[in-house]
Amino acid sequence: MSKTTTATEFPGEIKVLIDEQKIAERVVDLASRLEKDLDQLEGEVTLVPVMTGSMLFTSDLIRHMQRPVRIAPVTVQSYPGSSTRSRGARLQTPIPDALRGTHVVIIDDILDSGGTLAVLRRLIKAVEPSSVRACVLLRKNVDHDASAVCEYAGFDIPDKFVVGYGLDYDGLYRNLPFIGTLPSDMINKEDSG
Ligand code: IMP
Ligand code: MG
Predict the structure, then answer these.
(1) I need a labelling partner for 124 at 20 to 30 A (CA). Which of 31, 101, 114, 189 fits?
(2) Among 18, 52, 112, which residue has the most ligand 1 atoms within 8 Å of its CB, making it the best to mutate?
């Protein structure tokens, strides 16, 4: 039987996959690569963080960018409740019209099936930005949706369910400072198929 997740303590069994130090180094590296490329372009840049998972990643990334950027978050839900398999990306907020004519950078926590990035790119292109690119902290080693292009990725990781540094399971663990894997007995088996 699966253990139930409680909101009162972090289970000791979460295994560290990527520690705080490694994340911090890679974020600096990503920010400088991104900024170097954006500096080649004319015109305004709008970062589009995908809430809620990219909250910590975005806040660290932008503190290493020196150029002016606008920030226009969108909310996408793909893993409702305690599921660990995408049920299809659903946009919960409108695409900001202010993206029109600017260079857009979608920022997400993780590229898994690719559904989220594919949907977002299609909807963002419809408001006619000058360009669109995507930056994710993690990229899972799975077959992605062919239209889910991602120009910048921090780490390639195995196909395991991960939490921490913004990523959640059933709304919990986003505040862990590292990326970790949950023990399989903590994941509700009915949701992981
Ligand atoms: P995709 O649409 O399947 O690429 O999934 C992307 C979204 O699913 C991400 O923005 C995350 O919010 C969520 N997600 C995917 N894999 C994981 C995971 O291992 N842990 C937590 N959330 C995940
Ligand atoms: Mg997400």
Answers:
(1) 31
(2) 112
